[in-house]
């Protein structure tokens, strides 16, 4: 993976174009100018995978969307710290591990590696850090105690009055609850199981029972949500931690507040995730962090769903295409293009047509880059591509990306420059402005790199080789058809026709060699 687009110099300067960046904020439903907390630096926390099973295309869409957002911020000259967590313990991981005869931490790590492999295959820049929930239990315990001490959480005793392990956030004590989603807080529970339903849909087991219907003893209000959970009798000993509140394990919402604070501080610039995490997960994160006396994210950004035939893609609906399944049928570059070519807040309909359009884009872009490089005699160095700042990119592209990362309009600007360059190359070769073409090629590749799609990025070397192989196979079929016609002409003693075919092939750069066993061909040197 080429990480050269991630600047390492702490003195990197912010471009003039950065002043025009405007981003949507889920909390206030507006696109507003972006101004980081610390000049020149941006801190982002993105909710990552719950590693219970294999990733599907819906999961990857969010990761890729924030990869593009990050790449644009880098292109604007910001230093970006991106934290993407791994939830490696929850009810589903424990349940599925037990059902499959696995240790829960073994299952979590198997699927964590699958997610990592999918990210790498799709060309996602590695996060600055990727913390696991189970690695931050002390921070979670400290956070719970802060919230209890400030009067916004309560520990539930058992029948003997001892700590039971259950701790809940007291929603009624926090009047600001609902500030993110503006939902009515008097009717809807905000517990972890509601979050699981919200993310994945109700999970029905083979007996038709809802597997999320766990009792939550000691809750004072149905809106209250778990900060710490007492273990179930079926939970293994390795999934329990001793705390002042009793033995148990963390609530899902608590993890992200503890980890974002650990790595980004009490306040940071952007919190991201899928649209379905707004409530209750992100609402609860915001409430518990503020209730602890901390600041939190200054801006919330959420990606829309991937749909199939109008339905949200999810495993519970049986329409969640696995990443491995899709990549077995299409090059990773093509899949990435299909997933990033729609603005992050727009629903993305996954279909054969979207993949066919991505295939067409692959050919069109690759043909332009190859042709321009041949005419110029060289390609821009990769360092030139990654080092070209936003101030040196076409104005219409910069305006599109600064308009809440409008990739659709950005791609239109990219294709407009490709059409202009193709027209210049189609015209009189003597009139071609080679300096202009070199600049156009550099800009096209830099714009593609913003989307993680520069075809000459070393990461895509395998895809380029595959494309070359397919092109060679097509050329071989066409040339052999010509050679068969030539052989027939020679058998018919139509030597003028045979010589004409040979001359046409030679003019196209194909050298023909005749031998007793038949004619062969090669590209002329």
Automatic annotation (TrEMBL):
Keywords: Aminoacyl-tRNA synthetase, ATP-binding, Cytoplasm, Ligase, Metal-binding, Nucleotide-binding, Protein biosynthesis, Zinc. Residues 182-246 are annotated as: Disordered. Its cofactor is Zn(2+). It holds the Pfam family DALR_2. It catalyses: tRNA(Cys) + L-cysteine + ATP = L-cysteinyl-tRNA(Cys) + AMP + diphosphate. It is found in: Cytoplasm. It comes from the Bacteria. SMART domains: DALR_2. Residues 396-462 form the Cysteinyl-tRNA synthetase class Ia DALR domain. Belongs to the class-I aminoacyl-tRNA synthetase family. Its EC number is 6.1.1.16. Zn(2+) binds at residues 47, 256, 281, 285. One of its GO terms (cellular component) is cytosol. Binds 1 zinc ion per subunit. This is Cysteine--tRNA ligase. The keyword Ligase applies. Signal peptide: none annotated. A motif ('KMSKS' region) lies at residues 312-316. A motif ('HIGH' region) lies at residues 49-59. Monomer. GO terms for molecular function: ATP binding; cysteine-tRNA ligase activity; zinc ion binding. GO terms for biological process: cysteinyl-tRNA aminoacylation. ATP binds at residue 315. The lineage of its organism: Bacteria, Bacillati, Actinomycetota, Actinomycetes, Bifidobacteriales. Residues 216-226 have a biased composition (Basic and acidic residues).
């Amino acid at each position: 993976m080429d990480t050269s687009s991630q600047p390492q110099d702490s003195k990197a300067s912010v471009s003039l174009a950065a002043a025009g960046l405007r981003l949507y904020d889920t909390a206030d439903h507006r696109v507003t100018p972006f101004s980081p907390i610390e000049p020149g630096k941006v801190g982002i926390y993105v909710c990552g995978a719950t590693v219970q099973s294999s990733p599907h295309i819906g999961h990857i869409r969010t990761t890729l969307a924030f990869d593009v957002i990050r790449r644009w911020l880098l292109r604007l000259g910001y230093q970006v710290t991106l934290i993407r967590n791994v939830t490696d313990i929850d009810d589903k991981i424990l349940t599925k591990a037990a059902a499959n005869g696995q240790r829960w931490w073994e299952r979590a790590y198997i699927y964590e590696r699958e997610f990592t492999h999918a990210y790498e295959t799709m060309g996602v820049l590695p996060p600055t850090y990727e913390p696991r929930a189970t690695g931050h239990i002390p921070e979670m315990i400290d956070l719970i105690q802060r919230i209890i001490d400030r009067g916004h959480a309560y520990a539930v005793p058992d029948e003997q009055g001892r700590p039971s392990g259950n701790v809940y956030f007291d929603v009624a004590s926090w009047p600001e609850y609902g500030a993110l989603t503006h939902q009515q807080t008097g009717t809807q529970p905000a517990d972890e199981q509601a979050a699981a339903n919200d993310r994945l849909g109700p999970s029905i087991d083979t007996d038709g029972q809802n597997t999320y219907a766990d009792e939550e003893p000691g809750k004072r209000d149905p809106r209250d949500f778990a900060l710490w959970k007492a273990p179930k009798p079926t939970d293994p000993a390795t999934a329990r931690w001793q705390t002042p509140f009793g033995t148990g394990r963390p609530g899902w919402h608590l993890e992200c507040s503890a980890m974002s604070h650990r790595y980004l501080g009490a306040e940071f610039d952007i919190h991201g995730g899928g649209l379905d995490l707004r409530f209750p997960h992100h609402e609860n994160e915001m409430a518990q962090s503020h209730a602890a006396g901390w600041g939190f994210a200054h801006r919330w950004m959420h990606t829309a769903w991937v749909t199939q035939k109008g339905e949200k893609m999810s495993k519970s609906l049986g329409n969640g295409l696995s990443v491995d399944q899709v990549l077995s049928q299409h090059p990773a570059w093509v899949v990435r293009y299909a997933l990033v070519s729609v603005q992050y807040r727009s629903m993305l309909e996954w279909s054969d047509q979207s993949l066919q359009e991505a295939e067409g884009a692959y050919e069109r872009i690759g043909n332009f880059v190859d042709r321009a490089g041949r005419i110029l005699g060289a390609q821009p160095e990769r360092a030139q591509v990654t080092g070209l700042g936003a101030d040196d990119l076409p104005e219409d592209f910069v305006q599109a990306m600064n308009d809440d990362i409008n990739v659709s309009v950005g791609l239109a600007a990219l294709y407009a420059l490709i059409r202009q360059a193709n027209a210049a190359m189609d015209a009189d070769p003597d009139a071609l402005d080679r300096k202009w073409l070199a600049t156009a090629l550099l800009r096209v590749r830099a714009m593609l790199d913003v989307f993680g799609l520069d075809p000459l990025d070393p990461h895509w070397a395998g895809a380029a080789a595959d494309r070359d192989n397919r092109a060679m196979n097509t050329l071989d079929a066409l040339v052999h058809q010509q050679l068969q016609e030539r052989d027939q002409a020679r058998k018919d003693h139509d030597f003028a026709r045979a010589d004409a075919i040979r001359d046409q092939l030679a003019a196209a750069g194909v050298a023909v060699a005749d031998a007793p066993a038949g004619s062969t061909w090669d590209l002329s040197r």
